[in-house]
Structures are given as C-alpha cells and as structure tokens.
C-alpha cells in the first residue's frame, strides 16, 4: 500500500510536526513586547484591526458587523490574538532580515504568509491535489472492477480485496481533505481531525498490508487479524483527542506502524515476484527519499514553499503509481484465478 506509504509519511509528518510553544521566535523579547502591546491597543505599528475592539475593562468586543472580518476569514477563527501574533511575526522577520538573520520558528511553525486567509496556501493546494489524485485513482479502480473485469457465476468479483481497497480510497481522500483544512488554519479542532484521519489511514493501511500479503480471504480470519489492530488504533486516537496530545508517543506509534507495513510490502513483492512489483518499489524508494525533505526542514521560500510543502508535492506522482499498482494487482489476481479454474 504504497499510498499508504506516503500517507504513512503524511502521518509521520503530522506526528513529527507537533505544535510547540517555545520556539526561538516567540521567545524573542521584542516579539513578546509587540504582541503584548497589540493585545492592549489592537494595533501593530500603524496597522490596526477593526475587529480588535476592547471595553473599558480590557475585554474584547466583536463590534458591529461592518467592523468585523469578512465571513471567509471569520470561519478560520482569525481573532485579535492571532492577528497580533501574525503581524508582529512579519514585522520582526523584516527587522531580522535587514540585519542579515534568517527566519526562525514562532510557536512551533515557520513564518508563513497568509493568502486570502489561508495559513499555508501552497500546502493547502498540494493537499487538495493529492485528494484529487486519490479520487482519480479510486474512480479508475472502481471502473476497472465493475465495468472491465469479468464476474463469477454468482455475480461476485474474482478479486477478493475489492471492498478493502474501496475503504482505503475513502480513508485516503478523507485524510487529505483534513490535511488541506489543517494547513488552511491550524487550530485545536483541525489539528485533531488531521491527526486522527492520518492515523486511521495509517492503521488501516497496516491491516490491509497484512491481509493482502498473506492473502487472507476468509471473513472470520480477517476479523481476527483486524480486531486487535482496530482496537489499538481507536484507543490511540481517543487518547490523543480526549486525554493528551502526546506528540512523542504518537510519533513512536506512527513509526512502528509505518515500518511494519513497509517491511511487509517489500518482502511480499520480492517473494511473490509480482509482475508490477517495480511500481511498489518505486513508491517505497520515492517515499523514503521524500522523507529527507522532512529531515532537512528549511524555512519557507518567500514565506510560502517549505520542505513540508515539497513533500506534499512528491506524493502526487507517487499516488498515481500506487493506484496503478493496485489496478495491476486486481487484474493479475483475477487472471491468475481464472487460469486455475480452467
């Protein structure tokens, strides 16, 4: 499950990018002073925010409708504090650039520039493209299974893993949808939805890797294999969402699931001599090389394109190859079974 491989990395990247609160930028006294002043006045230099209005006791007021942000910004929850932090960050970065210093992180994130209210516009666009690629791959698989490959006498498909790949496609599209939302606006809710969706996809991918590589076709056996893993994945997601967002523990869980399924697929491809194993290996190797972008975490170019965004870009062609492998596997398995039946 190569796609699972890059989504594996999508999860790893989510696992590794926990939002920290003690970066070099937000520890800067000048930045802190700027934010503190902005919280009192609602202004950063000559830039003031109409929605940053305060009562006599210092409480924030929404103000009349014409003083508030437009709806397309309101749904992203850009409040007074987030605008203060954003503009203080931009001003501080300009000052540091004039002194010859490079960008630093603020609250665990590089200084990205907003575009039409989107926090990381390039990552949002690339996440959306990944979603589209998954939809295209899943749709082409659907057409192959229901309109091109033959059916048995009982009207059932010869490829026993059809329904499992359908679920995989839906989980993949869901994961990339919430990735786009999370990069659009990083708040507590979008972070939890992004993490949960990615972990669910990674865990299901591990289950699917086991079922396909060991050719588990009996439903009872599938339940016995899947139940313990599903229980663990569900418990892990509930733990992160309702008890503690433990980034370190989450990273360990993601790494174990990722490495396990990659080893399973790599060994299976070599042992079975699958005719399309080269596609699987391309995705595995390509995904591994793409992970170097996560290791070499450089600041965003011109405030838009960082290493993480480039990682998203590499998953687009890998997704196409992965779904191509899935379709090849369906055709190969169907032809092999029909040959045995003759």
UniProtKB/TrEMBL annotation:
TM stretches of this protein: 124-146, 158-181, 193-211, 223-241, 247-268, 280-296, 308-326
Organism: Ilex paraguariensis
Leader sequence residues: 1-22
Membrane topology: Multi-pass membrane protein
Domain of life: Eukaryota
Pfam families on file: Per1
Function: Involved in the lipid remodeling steps of GPI-anchor maturation.
Record-level GO cellular component terms: Golgi membrane
Keywords noted in UniProt: Golgi apparatus, GPI-anchor biosynthesis, Membrane, Signal, Transmembrane, Transmembrane helix
Family membership noted in the UniProt record: Belongs to the PGAP3 family.
Name of this protein: Post-GPI attachment to proteins factor 3
Subcellular location, record wording: Endomembrane system; Golgi apparatus membrane
Any one Gene Ontology BP term: GPI anchor biosynthetic process
